[in-house]
Design goal:
By secondary structure, the protein is of the alpha+beta class. The protein contains 11 helices and 9 strands. Strands 1, 2, 3, 4, 5, 6, 7, 8 and 9 form a 9-stranded mixed sheet that branches.
Amino acid sequence: EIGQLAQTFNLMVEGLEAAYGHVRSYARTAGVSRRKEVRTLNTFQTYVPREVIEQATRDPKGILQGEERNVSVLFSHIHGFAEISEEIGDPEKLVSQLNRYFKAMVDVVTARKGIVDKYIDDAVMALFGHGERRRDDVLQSVHAGLDMIEAAERFNQEQKKHGRPEFPTSVGISYGVVTVGNIGCERKMGYTVIGDRVNLASRAQGMCKVYHQPIIFTGSVFLKLKEIERYQEKEKGGEAEEKAKDLMPCQMIDYVAVKGKRDAERIYTVNRNLAGTQKQAWSLHNAAMEEYYPNRNFSNAITLFSQVQKLLPGDRASATMIERCRRYEREPPGPEWGGYEVMKTK
């Protein structure tokens, strides 16, 4: 009986060892599969937002459906990139420098809770509020734009230090309803947004060169910033006070109808902090814009814009408006004049 018991025990041990071997083999296989899954997910996240990958896993057919959302759209652009490419010459060096530049831009966007939607040649298109919606998405997009300008300045200092060409950068931002989704078909698709606000963000960026500004955003962004400001002013407590410090002064640059659109929109630039002289100049400029339109008092507007010139010699925005006001003094616009300029170029 003892012998039989010992034999049975030995058989049980052998069975347990075999089972343990199977468990270890399964665990090893599962671990390898999990690591492969994580690597694959991380790889795809460099091309597609994580939430899109998760949605595709849950509902493969549903990812082709679009959805309307209020999103802040940002475009950044390198001016004169064709000339920069020609100056660098070597394709390998060009790609290396461009990748370093794009990394700096992407780091800014992700730090501000946005995503990079795509690269368009030498431009970056980013979205804020595309997925999880936050009250301050628009504010974060404006901060991101300013951060990108600062990051580009640091990048350019490094380029200059090593005798390489600089990458002059400007940013345009718009906010409003867009269609978010995967555009394409089951065989080939791309996650992106489409709509009027996307085009306006691109046009705002293009106007940076016209108005000699590093960043321009549309009136929809300005109104949303004011809404956030009013909300924070109503809030009580230290946290609200800390958030209020994030808001920044804005300057109205012009009232324009971009190429291809009939409706006009105010455009603004922004700065985090204004020194005494610049703060006074921006206040005068904004007051002058009111005299220009809707008041149509071009003489008063010229007086105010001239004061801006004294405070900020060489200021391009006020100089442009002085020239325009003088033109309207010589040739007054008709009663149908809406105060806006029609842009002839993109």
